[in-house]
Amino acid sequence: MEYINNELHFGPSKKKLSSLCANYIRPIYVYDLDFIRSRLKQMAEALAGVRLYFAVKANPNPQVLQCLKSAGAGADVVSLGEIKRALESGFLPEDIVYSGVGKTRHEITEALQLGVLQINVESLPELERIGEIAEKLGKKAHVALRLNPDVSIKTHPYIATGLRDNKFGMELSMIPELTTCLKKYPNALELVGVSLHLGSQMLEFSGYQEALMKLKEVFKNLQKDFSSLRRFDFGGGLGVVYEKQDLELEARLLKEYAGITLEILSDLKCELQSEPGRWLVAHAGTLLTQVQYVKRTSAKTFIIVDAGMNHLIRPSLYEAEHLIKPLVKSAKQIKCDVVGPICESSDFFLKDYEMDEVKEGDILAVMDSGAYGYSMASTYNLQELPLEVCI
Ligand code: LLP
Question: pTM for the full model?
Answer without folding.
Answer: 0.97
